[in-house]
Amino acid sequence: MNCLICNADAHEFHNGFEGIECECHHCGHYAITDALLKIRHGRHFDVFDTRVLLAVLRGEHPHAVPVITEANVYWQRLLA
Q1: pLDDT (tens digit, 9 = 90+) per residue, 8-50?
Q2: What's the pTM?
Q3: d(Cα 69, Cα 32) in Å, to the nearest integer?
Q4: Smallest Cα–Cα separation from 17: which of 4, 35, 5, 34?
Q5: From CA 55, how far away is CA 59, in angstroms rounded?
Q6: How many Cα atoms within 13 Å fall on the side-chain side of residue 42?
Q7: Helix H or strand E segment including 27
Q8: Distance between CA atoms of 40 and 44, rounded to whole angstroms?
Q9: How far apart are CA 34 and CA 71, in angstroms?
Q10: Angle CA(63)–CA(45)–CA(5) in degrees, nearest 5?
Q11: Which of 3, 9, 30, 78 has its CA 20 to 30 A from that of 22?
Q12: H helix or E strand, kind and range, residue 79
């Protein structure tokens, strides 16, 4: 699979998480909820801001997989 954040090669984990859990060499290990995937509608994640978010989440909970949700998502901004 490809990383949903940066589109690089990634490994997907199949462990019963309701969403996608994967590991990318650039973005690290993370998960995205099904609820967020359902509202994505072709939008792309902002790579820089999402990686910062993941770093913050890892710092707050170092032994947990960081989860991207509807509440903390950063979408790529469209240039006018």
Answers
A1: 999 999 988 999 999 999 999 999 999 999 999 999 999 999 9
A2: 0.92
A3: 6
A4: 34
A5: 6
A6: 1
A7: none
A8: 8
A9: 13
A10: 55
A11: 78
A12: none
Return the structure tokens found at 54: 């993941």
User: Domain map of the chain by residue range?
Assistant: 10-68
36 Cβ neighbours under 8 A, 6+ residues apart: 19, 68, 69, 70, 73
Alpha carbon distance 43, 13 (integer Å): 23
β-pairing, 67-68 with 19-24? unpaired
Matching residue, tokens 């909970």: 61
DSSP letters spanning 29-67 = EEEEEHHHHHH-TT--B-HHHHHHHHHHHHHHSTTS--E
Token pair for 64? 């947990």
- The residue length of the chain stands at 80
Here the tokens at position 10 are 């990634």
Q: CA torsion sign, 54 to 71 to 46 to 6? A: positive
